[in-house]
Amino acid sequence: MADSWEKLKRACAGCTRCSLCQTRHKLVFGVGREDAILMLVGEGPGEQEDLQGEPFVGPAGKLLDTMLELIDLDRSKIYIANVVKCRPPHNRDPQAEEIAACSEWLRRQIELIRPQIVVCLGRIAAKTLIDPEFRITREHGVWHERDGIFYMATYHPSALLRDPDKRPEAFEDLRAIRQELRERNYY
Ligand code: URA
Asked: Is 82 near ligand 1, meaning CB less than 6 Å away?
């Protein structure tokens, strides 16, 4: 297993499958427990993540840490990755070709971690992993089972920074995640 991770990290580190490699400072592979029960998937690195090579280390990351704390979790207990591993310029949405070019890395991460629960942070991750037609305002908090993994999407922390009125709904989603983890005797 360790061998597979090393191979994957090495292959991904030099990725030139899309043009985002030309503008990245650091590729952001992902961090956390490689045997995590819960995996979070964001959209793609922002400015700070691109500079530091770690997911969710900017302002959205601070809010994500608070969200995790609310359900007695922290980064050491979970795995965090993104749909695209390199920063889209000016934080624009990743394009379909970029998501497709990057999809093998995320697929392999999910295969190796074999999480029981995957939480998509925001619309882009939900469209990529749950349903291309996903509507975050309508479908956040809803569980979808696929190949033995339970997927759910909630609002992206950046959306919650922009629109604090959405925070109570996101909190309900977090409670549902905690409940699901409890049922799996995680706590
Ligand atoms: N937004 C994301 O979707 N991912 C990060 O790593 C940082 C901000």
From this structure: yes
- Record the pTM: 0.97
Domain boundaries, the chain: 2-183
Query: If one looks up domain 2-183 in CATH, what number appears?
Result: 3.40.470.10
Q: Each residue of 53-86: pLDDT tens digit?
A: 999 999 999 999 999 999 999 999 999 999 999 9
What residues does 151 pair with on adjacent strands? 118, 144
Q: How far is the CA of 37 from the centre of ligand 1 (A)?
A: 20
Judge if the beta carbon of residue 157 lies within 6 A of ligand 1: no
